[in-house]
Every structure is written in structure tokens, then in C-alpha cells.
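MFS domain-containing protein: structure, please.
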Amino acid sequence: MYQEIDAASADAQHVGRLTRLRESKGLVVAVVTLLLMLDVMLITVLEPLLPAMLFELDQLQQGGITWSAWLSSLFRCGGGGGVSSIGYFSNSSNDQLDGSSERQLYAKYAPQIGLVLGLKPGVEVIGNLLVGPLVDRVGHKAPLLIGSGLYLVTAGMFGFSPNYPILLIARLLQAASSSLSTVAGLALLAATFAGDEVERAKAAAVAFGGLSFGLIMGFPFGAVLAQWFGRASPFLVLGGLSLLDMALRLAVRTPADSASHARRDRGNKDNRDKDNEEEEKKAKRRESTSASLKEIG
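Here you go.
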């Protein structure tokens, strides 16, 4: 019996620790920091690889490289071939583009590069205006989870896009993911530290530090992984990190969750109070009935 009591007490303590962790302000800061970092890293990974990606896809459509050669450029162990920092090494010839060819490459794909890069901020301006009222209506959790799911899909599409239209669709989904995650995350951060301006400023500084870190690390991160492990590898790593991010977003307790939990606790307490009142009334009626029977007797 005592062992059962001890086990129940240990389980209650474990649940209490998990609840405190989910409700901690530190977890909210970690979630917002990670989402800002991953959002900007996907941008900075894509930008330096985009000219070579477009060249690959163009050659693939024209028959300049085979599908097997294109697939081999997606995954590779060790350097040699594939995407370089400033151009593309053809998997079929291993000849590096000279300076003139590199300039022609950038000039040829400049309109397509501009459209891909400009599509996200253009759509995000509209998306941010729509997501704000949505967060007020449905809370923080749903936009955060949907944004994380879209991020995972976007990373996969960037890594395995077989043509230019798929790149544009991926960029649109990236804009939607960024709007949902950024607006909901910053709103959650503000709501969590609503009562303390100093703490809110410190939390915002840490969160935007994640954005700066992603901006600094994204370019070398994507270039090194693409050079040594294939073009798809940096997007796969970011997709894996997004799964961790999704788990944290699912675990964090938002103000709406806390309010719902508090209402549920108040409702349970009210129900218990009503039950106790009913029991007291029944006990009083039984006592009055017993007293009446004794007087009659």
C-alpha cells in the first residue's frame, strides 16, 4: 500500500515538473528563438544555391544532364562535383565554369532569381496582415503548428524541386509559413511577458538573437553541406530541425491553453463545491428525519 502511495506521489511530481516546464517562460523564448532562426536560415541557405539550382534544372529539362546525374547531385559523400560557392560543376564533365560563363549564368537567370527571391517578402506583407487577426481569433497554437508543418514541406520541396514552378510554389509556402510562425510567435512572446516590460525586452533580445544567428550561419551552413553532401542535404537538415521545432511548439502552453486550464480547474472546483453542498443538505435532511422519528416514538 505504501509503495502504491509512493508511486502515485512520484507520478504526481513528474507530471508537476512537466507542467511547470510547459508553462515556463523560458520555453516560450526558446520556441520563438528557434522559429526565427530556422526561418531566416532557410532563406540564407537558398539564396547562394539558387543560380546553380536553376542551371541544374535548365540542363535537366533540355537533356544536358541525365536524371541519374541530377539525383547524384542531390546526395553525395565527399567533395567534388555539384554546387560550388560561385557556380556549378557539371557532373558529366567536371569542368568549372570560367569567370565569363559565371557572369553569363547569373545574367541568364537573373529574372528567375529575382522572382523567386522577391516572391516571399511580397506575399509575406499581405500574409502578416491576415495572420494578426487570425491569431486574435483562434489563439497562438494553431498558427504555430500549421506554420511548422508548412516549413517542413517547403524544405523538402526546395531540396527535391524538379522544375522551376515547384520552386515558386515552395517559395509561396515559405512565405505562408513565415507569416504564420513569426506573427504568432512574436504575439505569444508579448502575451507571455505582458506584465513586465523589462523582462519582455530581454526576451525579445534573446529571440531576435536567434534571427541574427541564423542570418550569420545560414550562408556557410548551406554552402558547406551542399558542397560535401549534395544540394539536398542542407534542406534535409533544416527539415529535421523543424521536427524538433514542431515538438517544442506542440509542448509549449500558450496563454489560451492556460486560461482554458484555469477555467477547467475552476469548473471542477465549482462542481466539487456543489457536490459537497448537496451532501451536506442530504445529511441535514437525514438528521432532521431521525430527530422527527425519535419525537414521534
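Notes: Residues 24-252 form a domain with the Growth Hormone; Chain: A; fold (CATH 1.20.1250.20).
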